[in-house]
Specification:
Layout lengths: L2 H11 L1 H4 L7 H7 L10 E4 L5 H8 L7 E5 L2 H10 L4 E4 L2 H4 L9 E6 L8 H13 L1 E11 L8 H6 L2 E9 L6 E8 L9
Parallel strand pairs: 1-2, 1-4, 2-3, 4-5
Antiparallel strand pairs: 5-7, 6-7
Helix pairs in contact: 3-4
Bound molecules: S-adenosylmethionine.
Length: 193
């Protein structure tokens, strides 16, 4: 089955969770991963779907066995295990999965394809909080959005002491998307890490 068909089927069965009828395009995959390569490994990806960003991360030099892929959809998780057998694929809710520490160690980057804008504040908070607990100092969280505004509320940013920067507009995607990078406003001290 083609990725477009499996994506459309997944969207039909849960439009809110899948949030798009087609996988992201190559321009968005290149944009959201452009600051990530070997030095950022291990890398955590949230909501990889069919693995468009995963493939690009590997293309950028992130070793497959240093990727943690967290995907709620069972069919997508099976497809990811077949496609990226050396990666760690967790079929789980991102907030729950991020409450643990991963064997591969602290990540240099988290890449998210989650529909975070439409999530309740408590869920968005848990995802970002868990992500930053799994990131090493200086690590960054990357998120795309189809919205014109920042996909994370001011409340969540302030509670977690995060800075949001829009790093790119990808007009070549359908629909066009913006890419945000979230980082800690102040570097964490050793005992907070
Ligand atoms: C908009 S799609 C993005 C897929 C892929 N990253 C892309 O850009 O083509 C959202 C993905 O997030 C997954 N997802 C949604 N909510 C989730 C959650 N709470 N935990 C883990 N995955 C989730 C969906 O199953 C879907 O694969």
């Amino acid at each position: 089955m083609s990725d477009t068909v499996s994506f459309f089927r997944a969207w039909m069965s849960n439009p809110l969770r899948v949030a798009s009828i087609v996988p992201s395009g190559q321009a968005l995959a290149e944009g959201i991963t452009r600051e990530i390569g070997f030095d950022q490994a291990p890398v955590i990806e949230l909501g990889p779907g069919t693995g468009v960003f995963t493939r690009q991360l590997m293309e950028n030099g992130v070793p497959e066995d240093r990727l943690v892929l967290i995907e709620y959809g069972a069919n997508f998780a099976t497809l990811l295990r077949n496609r990226f057998p050396k990666s760690t694929v967790l079929q789980a809710d991102a907030a729950a999965a991020l409450s643990q520490q991963f064997k591969v160690g602290k990540a240099g980057a988290v890449v998210s394809g989650l529909p975070i804008l439409s999530m309740p504040t408590r869920q968005a908070f848990a995802i970002l909080d868990g992500a930053f607990r799994n990131l090493r100092p200086g690590g960054a969280f990357y998120q795309f959005t189809y919205s014109l505004r920042c996909p994370v509320s001011r409340y969540v940013l302030d509670q977690l002491d995060l800075k949001a920067q829009r790093i790119s507009w990808v007009l070549a995607n359908v629909p066009p998307a913006q890419i945000y990078r979230f980082t800690k406003r102040r570097p964490r001290s050793a005992e907070q890490v």
